[in-house]
Amino acid sequence: MDRLTIIKVGGKVVEEPESLNMLLDQFVKISGYKILVHGGGRSATQIAAKLGIETKMVDGRRITDNETLEVVTMVYGGLVNKKIVAGLQARGCNAIGITGADLDLIHAHKRPVKDIDYGFVGDVDDVNSDEVRLLINENVTPVIAPLTHDGKGNLLNTNADTIASEIATEFARYYSVYLFYCFEKKGVLLDAKDEDNIIYDLDYDLFKKCQSEGIIKEGMIPKLDNGFRAKKSGVKEVLITNHENISSGRGTRLI
Ligand SMILES: Nc1ncnc2c1ncn2[C@@H]1O[C@H](COP(=O)(O)OP(=O)(O)O)[C@@H](O)[C@H]1O
Ligand SMILES: CC(=O)N[C@@H](CCC(=O)OP(=O)(O)O)C(=O)O
């Protein structure tokens, strides 16, 4: 099977031009087929604030009312996505920016209301890779924004780490998939205050132990849940790393 590298980039890295440029420099050097999945939660929060819209997050997920859905559609599907595409074109990489609605890529349903009403947040039902695979095989690089659709005309907001693991799992049926989660730290840390104290090999039991001891917390928990799910579903390698270490492969490897 051909190799396909999927890079997920989010948080601070997409927000700051310097780190985004560094990531794109590394991304274009990756050989073989590739996909870039991006987040942009911090940019959405900033633009919402400028528009006088308050942001509410529960367990790392954005409560997405009508107004917020408009903001995230503009920010993820427009601003962030097209900035990345232009950056890749400038580096000679022929990219196409899409959401989960384009080419019918990702079907989702609105998260059912239990204790919390998340609004227009989508839980993924299935990924249809047929058309995107045609593009990839023509050496076009998809840049995927964290928006999905319900097939009834509604866009939904879906966490970018989840999009990356769902895409990786589907594409693992056709390619040898390497999934990299890039964020601002060098990997999963044993000590939040020591940036170099990286857990190089992380298995599920150690993850749960570190979680129970409060060493792994916040956004890292859903990131790792997504990563382990992808690993279990046939993705060859899952690495949690930063934008500077993509080529060296240093960081936390899920085993
Ligand atoms: N043990 C840990 N090692 C590294 N980061 C951790 C750890 N525990 C919690 N975190 C937090 O997880 C965050 C990454 O999750 P998140 O903010 O969702 O990522 P993203 O940058 O992709 O949006 C880091 O910014 C960090 O503050
Ligand atoms: C439902 C939900 O929470 N969606 C996320 C999608 C963006 C994202 O995941 O961005 P990062 O990777 O930069 O965190 C949000 O709106 O924040």
From TrEMBL:
One GO biological process from the UniProt record? Answer: L-arginine biosynthetic process via ornithine
The name this protein goes by in its record = Acetylglutamate kinase
UniProt-listed CDD domains: AAK_NAGK-like (cd04238)
| Presence of keyword Transmembrane helix | no
Where do the Aspartate/glutamate/uridylate kinase domain residues begin and end?
Answer: 4-242
Compartment annotation = Cytoplasm
What is this protein's function? Answer: Catalyzes the ATP-dependent phosphorylation of N-acetyl-L-glutamate.
This protein's pathway reads: Amino-acid biosynthesis; L-arginine biosynthesis; N(2)-acetyl-L-ornithine from L-glutamate: step 2/4
Q: Which GO terms describe its molecular function?
A: acetylglutamate kinase activity; ATP binding
Q: Which reaction does it catalyse?
A: N-acetyl-L-glutamate + ATP = N-acetyl-L-glutamyl 5-phosphate + ADP
Its main localization is: cytoplasm
Name of a matching Pfam family: AA_kinase
Q: What is its EC number?
A: 2.7.2.8
Listed binding positions for substrate are: 40-41, 62, 157
The alphabetical list of record keywords is:
Amino-acid biosynthesis, Arginine biosynthesis, ATP-binding, Cytoplasm, Kinase, Nucleotide-binding, Transferase
Q: What is the lineage of its organism?
A: Bacteria, Pseudomonadati, Bacteroidota, Bacteroidia, Marinilabiliales
Tell me where on the tree of life, at the top rank, the source sits: Bacteria
Q: Member of which family?
A: Belongs to the acetylglutamate kinase family. ArgB subfamily.
One cellular component term from this protein's GO annotations in UniProt:
cytoplasm
